[in-house]
């Protein structure tokens, strides 16, 4: 902020330096009479500067932006009249020999007094209009910046809410799975609790960043799949293929886990054989994630999972990767297919 103020002040000084130097720049190589330069160039520029900065720092903020148009016009008329009177007094008392005296009406040898006043008013309107233009532009830029800042804050807040919403959802679903193992296989239940602690440690301490390496997400998904495999019967076969090369790609954390959860929730049955296929491919900065499973819809009374995972995923994708993702799911021959493509670059 301080740097921007210095740049603005330097820009103003540079502009006025150029304007005050114009008489010598335009008449390069020719001798200039200092008295004439002062009378015809520098004094008008001082008056222009007065009009500009009085409006720039005072009148525009106090009246124009407060929608007090009549007051704004009134104070500027008073200022212009005062400057016209002052200009006439300076010309008469200090530059009588140089000043172009306005002729009285009826004198055909020069411009009328009304024409002189009209020309002076027009010249004084230029800095006024320029001050309004600059101040309005600055106000618009400031408003846009504040609007973007508010939008970014809202986005971060919403993403944080979705992130915190996903953690207990994941935790409770995993606990339900472990609970089902307690009576069947206490040893497997112990292993599951240990694995769950590692997964929760990752979720709590390593996913607070906007982006994480894809390799960490892959490791997290592998551990979760192995945890879920402990509770399924031999009738369920789970295949998964993840890239083994570290490409340096980063993604928003916990994007794919909801799809894997969904496959284990709706894709297994204790009464029939079933297959879950999970595959991820990396192509430059594009991540392609596919998952396919049998379809065994839960009963209406079954509230496990509460359906929050996929809703959470779609909302996060909209916020994190607008126009940079494709999310498609379809049911083909009792097989549920999901494809998620994300452009991470």
TrEMBL record:
Residues passing through the membrane, by range: 7-26, 38-58, 70-86, 115-134
Any Pfam family hit: His_kinase
Listed GO CC annotations: membrane
Top-level division of the source organism's lineage: Bacteria
InterPro entries: Bact_2-comp_sensor_kinase (IPR050640), HATPase_C_sf (IPR036890), Sig_transdc_His_kin_internal (IPR010559)
UniProt domain Signal transduction histidine kinase internal region: residue ranges: 158-235
Keywords: Kinase, Membrane, Transferase, Transmembrane, Transmembrane helix
Keyword Transferase carried by entry: yes
Listed GO MF terms: phosphorelay sensor kinase activity
Name this protein carries in UniProt: Putative signal transduction histidine kinase
Organism of this sequence: Cyclobacterium marinum (strain ATCC 25205 / DSM 745 / LMG 13164 / NCIMB 1802) (Flectobacillus marinus)
Source species taxonomy: Bacteria, Pseudomonadati, Bacteroidota, Cytophagia, Cytophagales
């Amino acid at each position: 902020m301080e740097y921007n103020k210095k740049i603005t002040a330097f820009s103003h000084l540079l502009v006025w330096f150029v304007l005050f130097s114009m008489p010598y720049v335009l008449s390069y190589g020719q001798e200039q009479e200092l008295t004439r330069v002062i009378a015809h160039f520098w004094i008008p520029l001082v008056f222009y500067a007065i009009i500009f900065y009085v409006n720039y720092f005072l009148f525009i903020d106090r009246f124009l932006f407060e929608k007090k148009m009549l007051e704004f016009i009134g104070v500027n008329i008073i200022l212009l009249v005062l400057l016209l009177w002052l200009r006439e007094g300076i010309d008469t008392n200090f530059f009588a020999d140089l000043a172009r005296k306005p002729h009285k009406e009826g004198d055909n040898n020069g411009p009328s007094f009304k024409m002189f006043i009209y020309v002076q008013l027009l010249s004084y309107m230029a800095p006024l209009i320029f001050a309004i233009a600059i101040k309005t532009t600055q106000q618009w830029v400031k408003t846009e910046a504040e609007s973007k800042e508010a939008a970014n804050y809202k986005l971060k807040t919403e993403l944080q809410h979705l992130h915190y919403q996903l953690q207990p959802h994941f935790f409770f679903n995993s606990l339900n799975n472990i609970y089902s193992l307690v009576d069947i296989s206490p040893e497997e239940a112990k292993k599951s609790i240990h694995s769950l602690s590692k997964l929760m440690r990752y979720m709590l301490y390593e996913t607070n960043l906007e982006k994480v390496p894809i390799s960490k997400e892959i490791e997290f998904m592998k551990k979760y799949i192995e945890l879920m495999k402990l509770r399924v019967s031999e009738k369920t076969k789970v295949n998964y293929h993840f890239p083994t090369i570290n490409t340096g790609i980063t993604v928003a954390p916990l994007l794919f886990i909801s799809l894997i959860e969904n496959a284990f929730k709706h894709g297994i049955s204790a009464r029939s054989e079933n297959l879950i296929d999970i595959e991820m491919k990396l192509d430059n900065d594009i991540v392609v994630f596919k998952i396919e499973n049998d379809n065994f819809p839960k009963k209406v009374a079954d509230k496990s999972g509460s359906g929050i995972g996929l809703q959470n995923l779609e909302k996060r994708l909209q916020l994190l990767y607008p126009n940079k993702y494709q999310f498609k799911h379809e049911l083909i021959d009792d097989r549920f297919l999901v494809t998620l493509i994300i452009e991470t670059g």
